[in-house]
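Posted in: Structural Biology > Protein-Ligand Complexes

Title: Requesting predicted complex, flavin-adenine dinucleotide in pocket

I'd be grateful if someone could produce the 3D structure tokens for the following input. Sequence and ligand are given below.
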Amino acid sequence: MSEIDPAAIAEQADVPTEPKQASHEVGRARRRKEDARLLTGRTQWTDNIQLPGMLYVQFLRSPMAHARITRVDVEAARQLPGVVAAFSGRDFAAEQGSLPCAWPVSEDIVIPDHPPMAYEEVRYVGEAVACVVATSRYQAADALEAIEVDYEPLPAVLDMNEALTGTSPKVHDQGNQAFTWKFGQGDIDEAFRDAPVVIDRTYVQQRLIPTAMEPRAVVCTTDGQSFTMWSATQIPHILRFLLAATTGIPEHMIRVIAPDVGGGFGSKLQVTAEEVLCLLLARRLGKPVKWTESRSEGNLTVHHGRDQIQHIMIAAEGDGRIRGIKVDLLADMGAYLMLVTPGVPLLGAFMYNGIYKMDAYDFACTGVFTTKMPTDAYRGAGRPEATYALERAIDELAHELKLDPMQVRRLNWIKHEEFPYTTIAGLTYDSGNYEAATDRAMALFGYDKLRAEQADRRDRGDPVQLGLGISTYTEMCGLAPSRVLGSLSYGAGGWEHGSVRMLPTGKVEVVTGSSAHGQGHETAWSQIVADALGVPYEDVSVLHGDTAISHKGMDTYGSRSLVVGGMAVLQACEKVKEKARRLAAHTLECSPDDIEFSQGAFKVKGTSQQKTIQELTLAAFAAHDLPDGMEPRLDADATIDPENFSYPHGTHLCAVEVDTETGQTKIRSYVAVDDVGRVVNPLIVEGQVHGGIAQGIAQALFEEAVYDAEGNLLTSTMADYLLPSAADLPTFVTDRTETPATSNPLGVKGVGEAGTIASTPAVVNAVVDALRPQGVHDIQMPCTPERVWRALQ
Amino acid sequence: MIPAQFDYVRPTSVQEASQALAGDDDAKVIAGGQSLLPLLRLRLTYPTLLVDVGRLSELQGVHDRGDHVFIGAAVTHDEVVRSGVIRDACPLVALAAATVADPAVRHRGTFGGSLAHADPAGDLPAVALALDAILVTSEREIPASEFFVDYLESAMHPGEILVGIKVPKLGPGWGFHYEKFHRTAQAWAIVGVAAAVRRSNGSIAEARIGLTNMGSVPVRARETEARLRDLDLGEAVRQACAHAAEDTSPPSDLHAQADYRRHLAQVLTHRAVRAAAGSP
Ligand SMILES: Cc1cc2nc3c(=O)[nH]c(=O)nc-3n(C[C@H](O)[C@H](O)[C@H](O)COP(=O)(O)OP(=O)(O)OC[C@H]3O[C@@H](n4cnc5c(N)ncnc54)[C@H](O)[C@@H]3O)c2cc1C
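-- Reply #1 --
Done. Output follows.
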């Protein structure tokens, strides 16, 4: 072996002796580095993965909402061309375990057994009861038709209120109540006693279907001992751990890879039946298997979102000052408790007070089983629901008192000089400036002019009326302090891991435990690392989503990636710099205290002597001359657990035109001013805000999962489950105020869910506002033209 | 979903296509596939053979034939929208075709396929009906008023091929409008109104109105048509249009209840007629 010659390497790799990077990366509107490969298809989605000898899995799904399975015969399917195997649920009964629920929220919680393939009873339309494995996807689908299943029908349970009556048929033997959960602060009875005004409203959060661009897909292969699974998942690390826990296959024998993943919105924050079964099928058959869902299969069986009935009461003074808020929720769990099903409404439990001050708060939630697809996290998870009910009810309060709705908000919100502020729900909001965001939004919107136009249209009896909707919001995100999650009985911590590998040529590989699936981590993390280490942005690459590469992680959801995962990477950079500083001092023969770091170079204070970080990296690699006891590498890891959640906030304003003759609504203008703290990449933030607003508007006006009286999903295709496209949405006017978070060194806050949280109430408030003179106080979401028209009859 | 297995042929003439269809009871014609493929994928239909007529030369082109325009059955929605001949001589067809779905669907879906599919929610059947188009098949000519028999059922028998559509040219003085009411830009019509109106001296001389999705077949709003004859533009037009839903039996489904559709038919007919009459 020839000796390594550092000088030669340095020359070849063009290792800089002067710092290469001067400008600030954090804050630059860089186009995302991942986009070229994602947009041109030069990437790997799970469904693109082809392995020699690959077999294809298709699942036979229950056509009944509730039934006892009396017979499953897969024999005829086994005889069909291309079919390698066919199994009923019973064939896996002994090994498939029960799909995990990681959030047993209360003492009284009922967590029913949830076999990945049902074999005794089915409890929703779409539940898997059998499967076929064949040499092509088409043959597998054909063979499903040859499977015979006999069902003994049981009554469907669809309505939450009815489900809780004593006479209701039961979804599970244990009954239809999944849990009760209560929380209170202050004297709520006192707040309501003789309250000059009480607003008492009930809102319905319709059921939604998260619609990621990429359908779910799973590939699993084995070498006879260990298993590799590719899955379109948000949570490769959690999935690996829970696959082991569910199947008993040792964790170190399972590797999970989330290759490029085309969106999740919470729907891929799950341990699915299909993942568990693909693992078991690969084990049983000793062959690689693949399953890719079709869109209509996905509408049926991707976990659904929202579906709550919210009873909210506000007690207030005659001037609009809020005394207290009382909330009572019914939350539809669907047929089983999946990964965080029961926890979703609780993520809203601390948010029904929003940005407002009050003396008392009371929250209660009952989880209810029905014979529908289980619900679980969907963009915002709990917080859009809370913000919706609150912001709708605040408008009602303003109307009741004949006050301008913004005035009521101003009267009650936490003033900027009052931060940090501990709310009635016990959270400490570290920073915020609601006045600034609101003032900016009002100016951009032209609030007063629009109010004048509204008055004019009302006077003229114009068939097209105008409504103005306000939503102010904050949210707890960036999940987050493990301690707090533990106190809420959450099954895991909220830390995140990051590591920085310094390559001999001075390039940097960053490994993150956050599992990007469309957010642009590779770009944002590169920007952070470029600034922290003073290296060129182009010299950084980011690795993620493979448990063999990124060995520790808590993955991506709850707007946590930047505020937890990004900060872990930043901290790892600090450790790299500390090592480099010691090495620089050693090389330059001074004390580490005499070294100052700036823009990629370690300088001896007051001299021109310096070493660049690339030179030091190479020196560490050669290891010819290191300080005593120093490891021959500058690489570093960090695992951080943030001290607090992050609390982005903002003000969204929406003007809606309502055609009173047809009920058609049209968003005339939309202004969003969000405060997400310091911004790493404005383009990425903009993208998150736009997508979030679109999804929130979709809940307000378009989307609804509908089951019929027998429990069949009527909205199983995109022709029936209406998603808006760009053609249906207005131009969003967006702006930001920047009030840095104090809970992390960059001052950043989460942004992934903000748009979705704020926009839904802004739109519905506007629709209702347009129709107030006609005596309309509420319209059930989605505010379809027909519902609007009926409200006017 | 995943379709079941089928064979596929692409004949080179209508005659060859007819033979292929005659040889297999479970054969089906495919043109743009924009309605048929979803049915196959949902396994709602199981043809053994698909006979692709999409590239047959006899089914192509838009031809000005003096008193009518002949539109080949396989002309795509996009070609319809871009055709100068159609825009000049029977713009209503282009106005309606422009509202079909999105560009991807319009580049594949065909005018003939839309009519043969006989979906009352489709935008073109009501247009063909309002314009008294004549559908030319491999065997005969069928007036639009006899073509649409029931939901997804035309007067064509299995094996018959739609070759083209004769759209009569309406003389000068006619105005047109297609009023589509839908929830998203890509969604199907909850109700649609195709209106052709002839004006003379500030009043409506004659009106023809086809309604989309107001029954199991596209229908004409005959009562309104009759009441609009020789009517001055003004409040009376609204009253005449209040009869638009008479003799219709609109469906109640996920997207709308029947009574709402009736109401919409009245409002939208009024809007369509006014627009076609060139009145703001
Ligand atoms: C997402 C989506 C949205 C849509 N939205 C709309 C909409 O808003 N409005 C609307 O009007 N349409 C809509 N469509 C349907 C579209 O207009 C189709 O183009 C049309 O319905 C069928 O035309 P095609 O050429 O694709 O026919 P195909 O799908 O190929 O065939 C449809 C039926 O017609 C028969 N057929 C086709 N051509 C002939 C022929 N020459 N002779 C005999 N039989 C024939 C076939 O056998 C089949 O039964 C939509 C389609 C999609 C996929």
